[in-house]
Amino acid sequence: MKDHEIKQHIGKTVVDELVRDGMKLGMGTGSTAVEALRYIKQKRDRGELMNLFIVPTSIQTELECRQYGMPLWSLNDSAIGGRLDLTIDGADEIDPEWNLIKGGGGALLLEKIVAFYSSSYAIIAENRKLVEYLGQTHPIPVEVVPSAVFPVIKTLESIGATCSLRLALQIAGPVITKQGNLLLDISMNTAFDPVEMEQKINQIPGIMENGIFTLPVTDLFIGHDDGRVEHREKRG
Fold first, then answer.
1. Which of 51, 133, 192, 221 shows the smallest number of beta carbons within 10 Å?
2. Angstrom distance (rounded) from CA 6 to CA 8
3. Could you say which of 35, 64, 93, 111 is catalytic?
C-alpha cells in the first residue's frame, strides 16, 4: 500500500473512533493530520460532524480548514473555555513509552500548547515512526528567539548537542515560525532521558520550546503497510 493510502486509512480510523459532534477539537500539523481533516470534511458533506469547534495548530492546518469552509477557533475564545476534548496530531518519532519528537513542520510551540490543554491526546503515524529511542532518526527541533540564537547554540553545544539552523527551501534565509522565531535542529551524541532533556533544553534562556513531547498520549493509531490500523490506548 502506498504511503498516502496508509495515511488516509489512519486519518479515517481516528475520526471514526474518537471524533464526536460537538467536540472541541485540536487539529495538528502534517500530512497524516491533514488526512484526518479531509475525512472530517467528507463527513460534514454528508451532514455529520457539523458542530465541531476546531482549534488549528499551524497555518497549514488553518488554511486547510478555511479551504473546506470550516469555522475556526482559538484557545482564547469563550466558546472553547481554555480546554479541548481531544487533539489529533502526528509525530516524527515515537518511543516505546510514547514519548515523541515533533516539530518537523515547525509548529511545535502551538502543538505543545494545544496538546497540554486537551483532555485526550491522539497521535497518528505510520509504523516507521516507531523507534527504540528518541533521536534515532530525527533531530530535535528547538524554537529560539532570534536575538539569542548564537548564545543558545553555544549553550546547547556545551551539553553535547550538534546544532544546525533550519533554512528555508524556496527562499534564501532561515525558516521563520508563526511566532517570528527561528528553528534549530539539534542532535544529541548520546542517548538521553526524554523527560530530563525536555526540561533541560527549555531552561535555557532564549528557547521558547523544543520538540521533545512527554505529555501523556491517550491514544496511538499506527498504520501498517497492509492497510491495517492499530489502535492502542493508554488511560491514566
1. 51
2. 5
3. 111
Task: Give yes or no for a contact between 147 and 113, defined as CB atoms under 8 angstroms apart.
Answer: no
N-term to C-term CA, the chain? 34
User: CA dist 235 to 25, 47, 119, 124, 221, Å?
Assistant: 19, 31, 11, 17, 14
Q: How do residues 94-134 score in pLDDT, each as one tens digit? A: 999 999 999 998 999 999 999 999 999 999 999 999 999 99
Q: How distant is the alpha carbon of residue 151 from its chain centre?
A: 27
For the chain, helix (H) and strand (E) counts, in that order, are 6, 13
Q: Are 184 and 164 in contact (CB under 8 A)?
A: yes
Q: How far is CA 133 from CA 63, 77, 176, 199, in A?
A: 34, 38, 29, 17
Residue 142, helix vs strand vs coil = strand
Q: What's the CA gap between 232 and 224, in Å, rounded? A: 13
The pTM for the full model equals 0.95
The one-letter code for the residue type at 116 is F
- Summarize pLDDT for 15-37 with one digit per residue, the tens: 999 999 999 999 999 899 999 99
Rg of the chain in Å (alpha carbons): 18
Q: If residue 61 lies in a helix (H) or strand (E), which one and from where to where?
A: helix 59-67
111 is catalytic: yes
